[in-house]
Design brief:
Blueprint lengths: L13 H13 L2 H31 L14 H22 L1 H8 L3 H37 L11 H26 L2 H18 L5 H10 L1 H6 L14 H25 L3
Helix pairs in contact: 1-5, 2-3, 2-5, 3-5, 3-6, 3-7, 5-6, 6-7, 6-10
């Protein structure tokens, strides 16, 4: 008698899951609004700030490196990445659609992988586009003062691509928080507090402890890759910082995957 190899139910493969997650992500208005807000805030604020500070930078009156300003708007644009990342999972829990998702694709690891791929891909592209538009707009004012930065200048291309990597990582961090907390407000609040509040408060701790915790905070470690030069020279080097950030995201995603596999939908 010939053994019959069981086959996976139709529609449970990763490719189909990715397609389904892509359709779900872009079928809601919040996705388009979030991406549009990222581009508008990131590129718009970078251009505005460069226009305002270009004369002082050229005169050497700020004491800050020019490269620290060409992706400045991402400081605020990252909020939209966090919101979109959290909504990727919390919206389904809020509406109960997660049950239909798991009925169509019972393997929860496949569902999580598909969500992560679609979200990170979307935010990577949006982050790069935002950074490039901000660089083009802001650099016009910097170049008018004779201090513009080209793609060939040290760290510029890395920062433009790194902006996409950082936005993707932030989205995954928020998605993991959303899976653990199952609440949009809670997930967004926790991640934003970690990036903006805790990342700055640890600077107040005395000695080497405060210095190293500052370097290792997700927002500080991850964002370094998105700027040619940092306002804070004490932060980790760009790729070292991003490696730390990626490890932190991976740990939280791992915890979220365990919770997702064990808890009821």
């Amino acid at each position: 008698m010939t053994a019959v190899t069981p086959t996976a139910p139709r529609g449970t493969g990763l490719g189909r899951a990715v397609h389904a997650e892509w359709l779900k992500l872009w079928s809601v208005r919040s996705t388009g609004w979030s991406v549009a807000a990222m581009v508008a805030l990131g590129a718009g604020l970078t251009t505005l700030v460069c226009a305002l500070v270009a004369p002082d930078l050229a005169a050497g009156q700020t004491g800050e490196p020019v490269g620290a300003f060409i992706t400045w708007g991402l400081l605020f644009a990252q909020v939209t990445a966090v919101v979109l990342g959290a909504l990727t999972v919390t919206a389904e829990y809020g509406t109960g659609m997660i049950r239909a998702t798991l009925a169509a694709t019972p393997r929860r690891g496949t569902v999580l992988a598909a969500k992560a791929l679609v979200l990170s891909g979307t935010l990577f592209v949006a982050g790069v586009v935002t950074a490039v538009l901000g660089w083009l707009g802001g650099n016009a004012f910097l170049s008018a003062e004779g201090i513009g930065l080209s793609l060939g200048d040290d760290g510029v291309l890395r920062a433009l691509l790194g902006s996409g990597l950082y936005m993707a990582g932030l989205g995954l961090l928020a998605m993991a928080a959303g899976l653990l907390l199952r609440s949009t407000a809670a997930a967004v609040s926790v991640v934003l507090a970690l990036v903006f509040l805790v990342g700055n408060l640890v600077m107040l701790l005395p000695g080497a402890l405060g210095e190293w915790l500052t370097k290792l905070m997700p927002g500080n470690a991850g964002s370094r890759i998105a700027v040619p030069e940092s306002f804070n020279p004490l932060l980790l080097e760009p790729w070292t910082g991003f490696a730390v950030f990626a490890a932190e995201v991976a740990v939280l995603l791992g915890l979220a995957a365990v919770a997702f596999a064990r808890r009821d939908a």
